[in-house]
């Protein structure tokens, strides 16, 4: 290559595309108009990432790099590219129609990733690194509760086929009481049924261990999501797991969320036009992140059960002739709008640590405070300890304590 050609290469603007796999990444380079320049394959290790970045830089000034799987197989390259001050864009896999038309291979996918950036089809920034820890804790917590449920089902099935004396004794118990009783069994005291009792005791102890594990993981998850977005965690009906899922969907990166409508579509909560001719209607979106959609659904159910404003809204919509399913769709859309604001705008969450000392200073019991507001004493206790967030109620409670 002559000096003039090298200078031309350095001056041209190029875009990279990366097709990521477990053991290799395939890197392609295109011009700023989408023309193919070169492609090569590199291993998924530090040396391979450095060589891939050098390969990209050798072809000109890099405007951006489109990467498939920035949160999975491409996470290592994404981290290395960001450290090299390269702009990384998250690219979705080509749709099935395009793959049927042009085929599939690593070079084809890498060039497609680069062209997606050039055309403007791919614009999202990769998810923030803080999401990695949240996803890990959520995965472990959900795994623990899934295993706990399976173990409880195994106990039930063993009791169904157990001898009459054992079945009658332990099926009369339910919930934690049954688990606690089974965990204290002494199989040696009943040699005839020792194998069955040993199995029941082992399963009951497994349930207890999994319950403790889930509680610990959920506590750590709650602390992490509260630090990352206290406003979202403080929203009515948003628990640790729900907040974690919404943060994972959004990537904890406000730059990824362009508009409130796009976030609703991402969560599958935006109505999709289904009009034709004289027909003008919308249908329910079945796309988007279904886990995020399920999170919005759980928030809607909590508010329908406990939130006064939501119950009033449900009553009005019911009188208007809407079904429960239609009302939940409306609620999910409204909740998506609220969550979008909380994800993109920092919110100051009021402290609640002053509530309990203020009540105790005036010698007011939990029962007296609960009677004043028409709620159970446990509600007041949970709000004072931060186990339940209801900022409007907390403000009213604080004003009453001040005036009492």
Automatic annotation (TrEMBL):
Coiled coil is among the record's keywords: yes
Keywords noted in UniProt: Coiled coil
PROSITE patterns named among the record's database cross-references: HTH_CROC1 (PS50943)
The keyword Coiled coil is annotated on this UniProt entry: yes
InterPro entries per UniProt: Cro/C1-type_HTH, Transp_IS110-like_N, Transpos_IS110, Transposase_20
Limits of the HTH cro/C1-type domain: 355-389
Coiled-coil spans in chain: 200-227
Name of the protein in its database record: IS110 family transposase
